[in-house]
Amino acid sequence: MPCGVGNHPEGNSRGPGRQRDRFYFVGAKLANRVIVFVDGFNLYHSIHDLNLDLKTKRFSNTKHHLKWLDISALSKALIHPTQDSFAGAYYFSAYAGWTAQDVQDRHRDYVAALKSTGVTPVMGTFKKKPRKCPSCKHEWVGHEEKESDVNLALYLVKSAYEDAFDKAIIFTADTDLAPAILMVRSVFPQKEVRVAIPERRLNRSRALEDAATGRIRITEQHFARNLFPAQVTLTDGSVIKRPTKYTPPK
Predict the structure, then answer these.
(1) pTM to 2 decimals?
(2) What is the structure's pLDDT at 142?
(3) Which of 22-36, 44-58, 125-139 has the highest mean pLDDT?
(4) Using an 8 Å Cβ cutoff, are 164 and 11 in contact?
(5) Which fold has domain 29-246?
(6) Helix or strand or coil: residue 193?
């Protein structure tokens, strides 16, 4: 239990405003406050990729249950048990309003489950975008997710300036976030920014890894060990059942 309040030893850094107070523990060092930032669609598709058998190049459709991921539990599993303190998580995504109703329902139930564990969702939008096949010249209207990467970058920089974390973990393989990471590390060199990258996407994210303090390799077992239960009780007492599609294989 915290027994007092002390000043953060690095509170006189370049962050704006007055030095923030920190809890301290008798006989121990100050715990590093860790905030997690999750690129929702990047994480979703990295899990979906696990359905692909790398040898046969065929999709097995046996990994959908891993999408019922408890981000809060996974985040706590990745930080040091005594040196770090989980200070919260943001989930950046957008609702795909043109998709089938069951798809939309699964996403909304998932976001509600995340909120029940203290994760803060930050939702963007989708924009219509004309598409054209270069071969057959067929044209159609597609949809492109907008704002999530920008929102993540803004919240990362904002949280750094507010001195809300000592360490940040970003779940993404999107190299567009490298400039924001470099800015935070340049202005606040005492803060750590690590990227958590699913192992099948490691080769696509060299610029991201170079920008960060370090890399966390995320395996399928990380996902499998940190799933929501079959029923999740929300803060208002209501219960969400795990979508049928996310039932683990027997």
Answers:
(1) 0.81
(2) 54
(3) 44-58
(4) no
(5) Rossmann fold (3.40.50)
(6) strand
**Concatenated DSSP letters for 130-186?**
EEE-TTT--EEEEEEEESHHHHHHHHHHHHHHTT--SEEEEE---GGGHHHHHHHHH
Per DSSP, the three-state class of 250 is: coil
Residues 6+ apart with CB under 8 A from 129: 141, 142, 143, 144
Q: What one-letter code names the amino acid at 21?
A: D
161 burial via Cβ count (<10 Å: 0-12, 13-18, 19+):
middle
Q: Is 26 strand, coil or helix? A: coil
- pLDDT tens for 172-197 read 988 899 999 999 999 999 999 999 98
DSSP state of 154: H
**What does DSSP assign to residue 8?**
-
CB 85, CB 33: distance < 8 Å: yes
Question: Residue ranges per domain, the chain?
Answer: 29-246
With contact defined as beta carbons under 8 Å apart, do 215 and 209 qualify? yes
Q: Tell me, what amino acid is at 47?
A: I
DSSP, res 211: H
- Cα–Cα distance measured from residue 86 to residue 73, given in angstroms and rounded to the nearest whole number: 10
